[in-house]
Amino acid sequence: MRKTPVRIALWLLLLAVPVAAQQRVTSVEGITEYKLDNGLRVLLFPDQSKPTVTVNITYLVGSAQEAYGETGMAHLLEHLQFKGTPRHGNIPQELTEHGARTNATTWLDRTNHFETLQASDSNLQWALGLEADRMVNSFIAKKDLDSEMTVVRNEFERGENDPGSVLEERVLSTAFLWHNYGHSTIGARSDIENVPIDRLQAFYHRYYQPDNAVLLVAGRFDEPKTLAIVQSLFGAIPKPDRELPKIYTQEPAQDGERSVTLRRTGDIAEVMAGYHVPAGAHADIAPLDMLLQVLADSPSGRLYAALVETKKAARIGGSSYRLRDPGYWLVAADTRKEQSIEDAQRVMLETLDSLSARPVTDAEVARAKAAILKSIELGLNDATRIGLQMSEWIAQGDWRLFFIYRDRIRAVTAADVNRVAQRYLKPSNRTIGVFVPTEKPERSDIPTAPAIDSLVKDYKGDPVVSAGEAFDLSPENIESRVKRIGLANGFEVALLPKKTRGGSVVVSATFRFGDEKSLFGRATDASMAAAMLMRGSTAHTRQQIREELDRLKARANAGGGATQATLQIETVRENLPATLTLMAEILRSPAFPPAEFDSLKQARLASIEESRAEPEAIAANEFERHLNPYTKGDVRYRETLDEEIADLKAATVEKARQFYQDFYGASNAQLAVVGDFDEAAVMSVVRDRFVTWKSPKPFARVPSVYAAAPAVNRTFETPDKTNAVFIAGINLPMRDDDADYPAMVMANFMFGGGFLNSRLATRLRQKDGLSYGVNSQLQVSSLDKTGMFGARAIYAPQNAAKLEAAFKEELTRVLRDGFSQEELDAARTGWLQGRTVARSQDGPLAGRLATDLYLERTFKRDTDLENKVQALTAAQVNAALRKYVSVDKVSIFKAGDFAK
């Protein structure tokens, strides 16, 4: 008798689960909700257009649920759920072997874990099994807490390096006197360091249960089979008999302006103004978000006009905290040393307080509405993207709030925006960096969160968007579908048509110019010329360009650097020709408005000046300069931060314009289109708008040159920075078609790649608890025999000696003992699956097609590389690593507050 294959038997067993074990709740725009008997809510969002599947589980627990002494507990548990279960002993290893793109995040009202994998029955079964298992069976052991606590503390220290983030925390803690929204999600340092394991375990068992979670599966999968797997794996978890504590604390109406001052080292000052606002489910949130866009957008915002255009500030921005309970809304501005923070604060408050005298107009609302709706509608074209975003709406009370929010945005009027401005943006409801006594305080009574059940009951939403095709992203299939066209004037085109969700399409193009001699000394002019492209053409102002892109539902950008200009577009089928036409105008006829040049210059100066005190910027700059063999003036030269500032100060709009006139054209260009498009319409625009654009000078590629930089070990002091940076590396005489390249790819992947299970991550993070973020990199040229192998880590300054010793020990060990064949086999599986996942991203895929036109390569290169990796032995990998790398030739750069 022939035996039924194991995998078929498993499906038969799963499909035998009674249908009554789960209840179908509702379906909106392609997302269907089910509920299991144990309380788990399940959202299924099938999308056959991409060969990936995403599993995202959201727990309705965050820093808002933490009690006194427990701050940061939810975030600690996010980390500890990667430490394993009896069934999954090495979760990072398993994630790497499955080629997963994965992460976890914690916020005020929720925690989520997700994996995006190559779509297959076995991968989906594994991912769902992992999440079901670690929901209730994670070790949460004392030994893991001891090692991971220092990693989380290192993450806390990294956040302490950013004064802007710290200031925002201080504003929130001042605004919220009683509600836990005033607590930072990462927690207090003392709580992170001292939390008892029994309290952490009790918190885990209380909140990480099926009745407090929402599971979402998005991408390519079979819905009935998946529901059966979910029922089998998650349905077996019993519903807990405890009652979850409810948050009953309500923040009272603020009764006067509050102020907070932060004093730390740094070069950039900042002022914030924030206000209490309703819960995310409240109808007023939509007009409040529109108000934020009207005020804080660049360049159309009122604050931009009042502060940046007048040179009273270098940058402006804003945030809207959409939360389960009444949340927060704030705006901010940065000023450089030569600008007055007092003037910026005064103008900011005048702009905010003048809304009653200068109400928001219909035109401003229309502009803001187009921008917000564009982002929402493009997001709906990507099941993975929207699947992960759903965690935020689930945390607010229900996933359908996303669609209700979109509908509310559509309906917002100028009257609505002006009403909420008057209701919430009162001085007595404001927290800022000064205190101003008020004789007759006014108060804003924040409405309670509405009843979610009645709000979402019977909600249907818009019709489901077109699903697209199930596209095979193997190199062979891509190559069979690509059409390459060589046009006059040296312009090359690659077309990859496919049906996509919502008719989405992307474009990537590169325009190459100049040579080593003609570009000498003009790097800053080139950078500024490229940055000015989107700031106005002869036919459209910067704001008009923004509005036209919003109308076309397009994300698009033109930029570049010293040797090339680039173009990226994301839009939908029917709008691609018009978007291409607009971007051709931007590239061919930039206006170089002097006022825009001045604001760009100020923003860039502020950014560089801010980085002069940052360990990451200092260490990276010095590291790159050491490995860089070029002299000042060469376009390949890496300037010091002070040189960058000096060159920027000397930059003029005339120099940028002259650079554009000397070099820009399309005589050496490659353009690729991937997605749903009309070939004839696209090629008509390409021929009319790009092929006719001739370059003024001949192009000759600027080569990269290998130089064996001497090994050094250098330390840089960055006072008052609680997080330090470690960078190490060595130059390589290698090209990506060399025989040793595949072996070096896998050596790098096992040494510092993968997800938390590489040699470096296992030692520095998992075992020693020294670093939150550690990895290695391999960068190899496709045209010149030059590259770099290196590693980076963040850590506490007091652990500098331990971290450097651990890095050297691990590199010495792998060079001495090598990788095992078993280690290589496991890593290779994950690396290969990760390649497929990478090809599922249309934007990078288009960029790859355009680059391959220039390199005269096809996707046979992928097949060849993957076949070579498949055939590798551990001996070959170890021999290649020993050939190119030795501990005594590696240069090390460290930056941090070591003296303290």
Word description of this protein:
- The chain is an alpha+beta fold and 900 residues long.
- It folds into four domains: 6-234, Cytochrome Bc1 Complex, Chain A, domain 1, CATH 3.30.830.10; 258-456, Metalloenzyme, LuxS/M16 peptidase-like (Cytochrome Bc1 Complex, Chain A, domain 1), CATH 3.30.830.10; 475-690, 2-Layer Sandwich (Cytochrome Bc1 Complex, Chain A, domain 1), CATH 3.30.830.10; 713-896, 2-Layer Sandwich (Cytochrome Bc1 Complex, Chain A, domain 1), CATH 3.30.830.10.
- Helix content is 44%, strand content 17%.
- It is built from 33 helices and 23 strands.
- The strands form four sheets. The protein has a seven-stranded mixed beta sheet, with helices on both faces.
- The chain is globular, with a radius of gyration of 28 Å.
- It starts with 5 loop residues before the first helix and ends with a strand.
- The model is unreliable at 1-20 and 434-438 (pLDDT under 50).
Tell me briefly what this model is.
This protein has 900 residues and is of the alpha+beta class. Helices cover 44% and strands 17% of the residues.
Number of domains: 4
Strands across the major sheet, in which order? 1-2-3-7-4-6-5
Looking at how many chains there are and whether they match, the oligomeric state comes to single chain
**Structural classification:** alpha+beta
Radius of gyration: 28 Å
> Major sheet: size, sense and barrel closure?
7 strands, mixed
- The CATH H-level superfamily of the largest domain is Metalloenzyme, LuxS/M16 peptidase-like
Classified by CATH, the class of the largest domain is Alpha Beta
The CATH architecture of the largest domain would be: 2-Layer Sandwich
Rounded mean pLDDT is: 93
Helix percentage: 40-55%
Strand proportion = 15-25%
Count the helices. How many? 33
Distance from N terminus to C terminus (CA atoms, Å) equals 76 Å
Shape: globular
Uncertain spans: 1-20, 434-438
Number of DSSP strand runs: 23
